[in-house]
Write a structure and sequence with these properties.
Aminopeptidase, single chain, globular, PG_Glycine_Bridge_Synth, alpha+beta, 2 domains, 7-stranded mixed sheet, Peptidoglycan bridge formation glycyltransferase FemX, 12 helices, about 35% helix
Amino acid sequence: MSLRLRTISRKEHLAFIESRPSASHMQVPSWADVKAEWRSESLGWFDPAGELVGAGLVLYRQLPKVKRYLAYLPEGPVIDWFDRDLEQWLEPMLAHLKSQGAFSVKMGPPVVVRRWEASTIKEAIASKEAKRLRDVEPDWYEPRAFEVADRLRKAGWLQGEDGGAGFGDVQPRYVFQVPLAGRSLDDIQKGFNQLWRRNIKKAEKSGVEVVQGGYDDLAVFHQLYVVTAERDHFTPRPLAYFQRMWKALTDEDPNRMRLYIAYHEGEPLAATTMLVVGEHVWYSYGASANHKREVKPSNAVQWRMIRDSYALGAGLYDLRGISDTLDEDDHLFGLIQFKVGTGGQAAEYLGEWDFPLNKLLHKALDLYMSRR
């Protein structure tokens, strides 16, 4: 089969995404509007019969003072990654991106390599035999994922460094997911650990109320988010970013982005954003106050989002990034500890890959990023 690649309209791109059970929220056409500071383009792969069989959202970031670009396909493109002739997908893409002035290409194949059940992770933490998730025998792995990695290396793609904790890539290599398909809500809740179930009950007894908010409530979310940023030592995004995100995503699909706020006695204590594409739901951003933590608003809001995801017919609830550390003294350990309580699975993706179209400029960008 020989494939043809060309730019496609947003309408064509969206129709293709909607024809699939799942794709990353960063590969929908509206994500280009969220990342307004990047130039963007939708690419489509067509089979000999003229049918659209793959799509990718490309974001172009210009180098200062030079008309050369980093081309980035976050968690994409959406193609047949297990095709033995992977080059027929990637070669025309590289040729096109080069013609557009790209000096380097970065992509994140949406391919899961390994999965670990919550029970396996808990055992590994208790035994203290492994310091990293990657050193623990997985409960499931995808043999074809290793073949994909080999094909990419042979074709000249370079694997991004994972920084030793799974956070070296732009997008997280390790995530935590709760499978919903084929389970009842009772089964899902029974999968939670005792502490999570107790915290959900405590929130209910304390009178915590979780409500679904709208555009005007983003300011409430943002106030809590700024408090969280100060507490956790990160630079918060401005309110305008979330407002742009809301407008862009909900214009494409009214259900694409949701906002949840947990109130106690009329006071907002926790807030989250949720993203939906097909059967895949993501917990996107979370925020919480510094006080009244004893009424467990964060557990309440997560349980509400899981229930609503289930009602939407989602097959997977994705709590996004974790570090792969199992060391209780590591400052990133709390991430995996909180999410393991949901009884889901840790998943390792193939990570991000780079193709230097201009090795000198690619090396200069690497140097610049490492200094940052």
